[in-house]
User: Which sequence fits this backbone?
């Protein structure tokens, strides 16, 4: 075994073939699989699959769900990045309950993301979906074994690529208070009050429609132009403001797969396509992400 | 998260706090899904969606989940 197969954390420098288990983790030394009826107390949470890599995960962010650096479980020419997690939290029933707890979900998702981000500093990881859990290490190896062709092809396709998120929001201006240029606000019983009100309503609707049209044009231009700068484009479901907690209506939620080396140009392109003088249309860029949204490209369409 | 303005420095972007909803778009809508009996989550992808649908509908009753797989 070469150095690339060594664990990459100084704290746990055991060889991956011996399971890569950090030495100081007594609680994981028990409960081997195969005790029917005996609940195992630890499961394996798999964050990502990578090629063997050299280099050390950054200390900051390189900690998994158990608070320790994630383990690298080598199998053939693939590596699974895993943490032991308590079955009490991650077995099917408790996991299902936890997933309904937004705080728990948020913390788990952020930890998963931090591990992926840490991995991107040393390799191009293939991220797995949140809460991918195996019973034990041999389960993880089976996962690598049976999915090998798919992992290898995805790793090749995504090597050196990152994902950028581009969202567009429209801000409908609130109904304008009558401006001084408009007819001075008549009292409600004055002649013309009703007409003035209708005019204002009409003007507001026009403003809104114009804003929507402008946003539409921005979205189309962004999509067309950025798709040309990207290898792939995925449209995510539009976000609800009550979840994102931000104002404005989300009218585009796109992800673009871009070679890391082309990222700067891509970001510059987004900036150039962002209308600078339009308060009603906002463009938001996020990234660089690991290519979460592109792990399935090239595979057969899901039915 | 703040609006994308003149702040186009990649590092600065990377260091912004990530909005949970953006994260969930990716972690629940993306990432490799392992199917079959290899993981505990035999049907968990769906479970996750169902749970989140429930979660979201508790926030807002008539908004479709943003977390369905768009790939």
Assistant:
């Amino acid at each position: 075994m070469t150095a690339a197969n060594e664990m990459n954390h100084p704290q746990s420098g055991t060889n991956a073939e011996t399971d890569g288990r950090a030495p100081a983790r007594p609680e994981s030394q028990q409960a081997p699989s195969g005790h029917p009826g005996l609940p195992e107390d630890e499961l394996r949470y798999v964050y990502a699959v990578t090629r063997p890599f050299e280099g050390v995960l950054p200390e900051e962010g390189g900690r998994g769900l158990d608070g320790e650096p994630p383990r690298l479980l080598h199998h053939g020419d693939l590596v699974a990045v895993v943490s032991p997690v308590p079955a009490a939290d991650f077995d099917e029933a408790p996991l299902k309950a936890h997933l309904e707890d937004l705080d728990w979900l948020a913390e788990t998702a952020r930890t998963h993301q931090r591990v992926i981000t840490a991995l991107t500093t040393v390799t191009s990881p293939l991220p797995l979906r949140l809460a991918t859990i195996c019973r034990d290490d041999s389960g993880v190896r089976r996962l690598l074994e049976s999915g090998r062709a798919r992992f290898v092809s995805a790793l090749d396709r995504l090597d050196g690529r990152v994902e950028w998120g581009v969202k567009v929001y429209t801000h409908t201006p609130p109904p304008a208070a009558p401006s001084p240029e408009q007819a001075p606000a008549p009292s409600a019983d004055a002649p013309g009050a009703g007409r003035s009100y209708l005019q204002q309503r009409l003007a507001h609707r026009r403003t809104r429609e114009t804003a929507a049209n402008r946003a539409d044009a921005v979205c189309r231009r962004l999509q067309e132009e950025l798709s040309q700068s990207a290898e792939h484009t995925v449209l995510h479901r539009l976000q609800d403001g009550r979840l994102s907690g931000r104002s404005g209506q989300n009218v585009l939620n796109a992800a673009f797969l871009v070679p890391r080396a082309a990222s700067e140009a891509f970001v510059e392109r987004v900036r150039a396509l962002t209308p600078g003088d339009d308060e009603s249309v906002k463009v938001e860029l996020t990234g660089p992400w690991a290519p979460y949204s592109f792990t399935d490209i090239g595979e057969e369409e899901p039915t | 998260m703040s609006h994308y303005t003149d702040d186009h420095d990649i590092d600065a972007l990377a260091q912004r706090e990530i909005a949970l909803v953006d994260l969930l778009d990716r972690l629940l809508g993306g990432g490799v899904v392992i199917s079959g009996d290899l993981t505990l989550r035999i049907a968990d992808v769906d479970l996750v969606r169902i749970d989140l649908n429930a979660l979201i509908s508790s926030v807002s009753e008539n908004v479709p989940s943003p977390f369905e797989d768009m790939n």
Summary: Strands of chain A lie at 42-50, 71-75, 78-86, 126-127, 133-134, 161-170, 232-235, 249-259, 281-289. The helical segments of chain A are 87-90, 92-98, 102-120, 137-146, 148-158, 193-229, 241-244, 263-273. The first helix of chain A runs from residue 87 to 90. Chain A touches chain B through 73 residues (CB under 8 Å).
